[in-house]
Design a protein that fits this description.
Helices cover 44% and strands 19% of the residues. The chain is of the alpha/beta class and 404 residues long. The model has no long low-confidence stretch (mean pLDDT 95). It binds nicotinamide-adenine-dinucleotide.
Length: 404
């Protein structure tokens, strides 16, 4: 078994060692309900045929239809998709939305595809998995290297808008979906701020990954006059202890494609960025960034995991021992799937909700989830990841064992 699914199982076992749910629940959740694999045949622009490996993992649906993104990446593999599907089961349960956990992927470097080839790949994916997806069965969404472009095509090919979320507004997408992950993280942080002993005037932020989630989170912080002292993307990091000008950085990144060499800052390596002194460190890029190798040098009060799986189990223990609170991915970035659920709900009811209604509902969901996780963590004197897993296990157990 490869490392990332093993990391998920360790997280699950650690939560189960705090609260006894019986052996049956662990047996049911330790592997996905269904693993689907297909080879997709696509005709390329030059007339040649290419075959791509495609996956859909349906981890659990006790609380509602399977829910989770489709990732296009050259390194997509079964272990990774399985892990992400399982985390979705816990994320939807923590967020308190009536959905389960799933994930899909295609092993492809989508940057080498023309738009027409990508459209053909989306249609091939839909037709390969058609019997196993649907508004009441399994509802995919965008993930790394997929977007509303792909979701609009899948919805059209399938023939129902509610088969996917993350669509363009014109095709039935929800207002507020594009900002939901970062806004959700912000609401969680605000709800827990006093308990985490973060001074509202003084805390500084470092963000690893200036992409969709990270750049949006930077905008929100800037709107609230919170100082961002470090930012990175795949080209490297930048640092200014006095705070970066986020509006100027946004324009600079748009113009140059990277954050490197931004005026008024010094270039730093990605590893160094993670170790900067700050109030809140926000990993918003990749998996396994905080590990046994660097956890002891993390110099933040709080880690807000906008990325999926950025901290390993061993690092969790080191951070907790140092008094650094980690707001885990299943809570911190669950705003995205929460507004995805709102999109599905609007499609099912034939409604279109205004942005302020979506935002109010998101805030309410995030604050409730944050409170529930905090109570479980503080009552048991454990980290918030285990608190979040315990909350999810309670909700999953209730859904599975409720009398019919
Ligand atoms: P994205 O591709 O838009 O952004 C990723 C950013 O990380 C890019 O700026 C990239 O340059 C940077 N990056 C890549 N390698 C890096 C490295 N080694 N060091 C520093 N930066 C690096 O992706 P995204 O949608 O913002 O997603 C980021 C993370 O958040 C992923 O783990 C994703 O699963 C998670 N997430 C995103 C959403 C969402 O709604 N976008 C929802 C839930 C979880």
């Amino acid at each position: 078994m490869q490392k990332s699914y093993q990391n998920f199982l360790s997280q699950l076992e650690r939560a189960l060692s705090v609260k006894d749910f019986g052996t049956e629940l662990y047996g049911l959740l330790r592997s996905p309900m269904k693993q689907l694999e297909h080879k997709l045949e696509v005709t390329m622009d030059d007339g040649s045929q290419r075959t791509f490996d495609a996956y859909r993992i349906q981890h659990n649906n006790w609380r509602g239809p399977f829910k989770g993104g489709i990732r296009f990446h050259p390194q997509v593999n079964l272990d990774e998709v399985k892990t992400l599907a399982a985390l979705m089961t816990f994320k939807t349960a923590v967020a308190g939305i009536p959905m389960g956990g799933g994930k899909g992927g295609v092993t492809v470097d989508s940057k080498t595809l023309s738009l027409g080839e990508r459209e053909s790949l989306d249609r091939a994916w839909t037709n390969a998995f058609r019997a196993n997806i649907g508004p009441e069965i399994d509802v995919p969404a965008p993930d790394v290297n997929t977007s509303s472009f792909d979701m609009d095509i899948i919805a059209e090919e399938f023939g129902h808008p509610a088969v996917v979320t993350g669509k363009s507004i014109e095709k039935g997408g929800s207002l507020g979906r594009d900002t939901a992950t970062a806004m959700g993280g912000w609401y969680v942080l605000q709800k827990l701020r006093e308990r985490l002993l973060l001074d509202p005037e003084m805390f500084t932020v470092v963000i690893q990954g200036y992409g969709n989630a990270g750049a949006m989170f930077a905008d929100i912080c800037a709107r609230h006059n919170i100082k961002i002292v470090g930012v990175s993307d795949s080209s490297g990091g930048i640092h200014n202890a006095e705070g970066l000008d986020i509006a100027a950085l946004k324009a600079y990144k748009k113009a140059t494609g990277s954050v490197k060499d931004f005026s008024g800052s010094r270039n730093i390596h990605n590893g160094e960025l993670l170790e900067l002194e700050c109030g809140v460190l926000v990993p918003a890029a990749l998996e396994s960034q905080i590990t046994v190798d660097n956890a002891a040098r993390i110099n933040a009060k709080v880690v807000l995991e906008l990325a999926n799986g950025p901290t390993t189990v061993e690092a969790d223990d080191i951070l907790f021992g140092k008094g650094i609170q980690v707001i885990p991915d299943v809570l911190a970035n669950s705003g995205g799937v929460t507004v995805s659920y709102f999109e599905w709900d609007q499609n099912m009811k034939g409604e279109t909700w205004p942005a302020d209604k979506v935002d109010d509902m998101l805030k309410d969901h995030m604050e409730k989830a944050a409170e529930e996780v905090w109570v479980r963590a503080s009552n048991n004197n454990i980290d918030m990841r285990r608190g979040a897993f315990i909350l999810a296990l309670e909700r999953l157990q209730e859904a599975n064992f409720k009398p019919s």
